[in-house]
Amino acid sequence: MARKGYDLLDKKRQVLVNELQVVQGQVKKAWDELHEALDKAHIALNTAQAEMGKERMKQKSAYIGQTVYECKGISFRSVMGVDLPVFNNEPAFSPIRYELHNTTTSLDEAVLCWRKARQYIIAWAAIDNTIYRLRLHIKKTQKRANALGNIAIPMYVARIKYIEERLEERERDDLARLKLVKTTS
Q1: What is the tens place of the pLDDT at every residue in 100-132?
Q2: To 10 degrees, the CA torsion angle through 168, 172, 173, 179?
Q3: Of all residues in the chain, what percent carry a pLDDT higher than 90?
Q4: Distance between CA 108 and CA 63 in Å, rounded?
């Protein structure tokens, strides 16, 4: 049973490592998308600030900051008992919550760019969390497999060997006694 457990833990570790490699393949793309979205958002914000002025931007940002964001695009999937976050990158429609009086289209564009950047930030966080969880469970699985392979299995093998030797010794003793009884009778 210990060997079967070791084999199962080794297979689990292999599956988790394969999943980690798949996720790490997505890292560069997600990182590039995140930085591109953040660059666009900063440019749009700077443009809006240049067009509207600092004071009006502060006034409008007070309304924008009160917007409550809900993230409904995160679900979880299980890989060998490890719950991994999956981000569904569907932009959720939410109305603009600031007055349109005394604003420019550049402010609208900045708000939309930051909303898109937020989506990429959440996606990056999901990937980062996935990598963290996979590494953690790979490490735990490796520790358990090592404990079985290096401690438990050798201990059980030594016990089995000891028991077999004792049984063989008893069998020889019993055989010697039978021969002794047979020769004396």
Answers
A1: 666 788 888 888 898 889 889 988 999 999 999
A2: 160
A3: 46
A4: 13
Q: Is residue 84 within 8 Å of 134, Cβ to Cβ? A: yes
Under a CB-based contact definition with an 8 Å cutoff, are residues 52 and 106 in contact?
yes
**Residue (of 139, 133, 147, 134) closest to 5 by Cα position:** 147
Which tokens belong to 60?
A: 């409008």
Please give the Cα distance from 32 to 120 (Å, whole number): 10
Report the alpha-carbon distance of residue 25 to residue 151 in Å, rounded: 36
Q: What is the pLDDT of residue 68?
A: 47
d(CA 119, CA 104): 24
Backbone angles phi, psi at 118, to 5 degrees: -60, -40
pTM for this predicted structure = 0.72
Map residue 144 onto helix, strand or coil: helix
C-alpha pair distances (Å), 55 with each of 16, 48, 58, 59, 60:
52, 12, 5, 6, 9
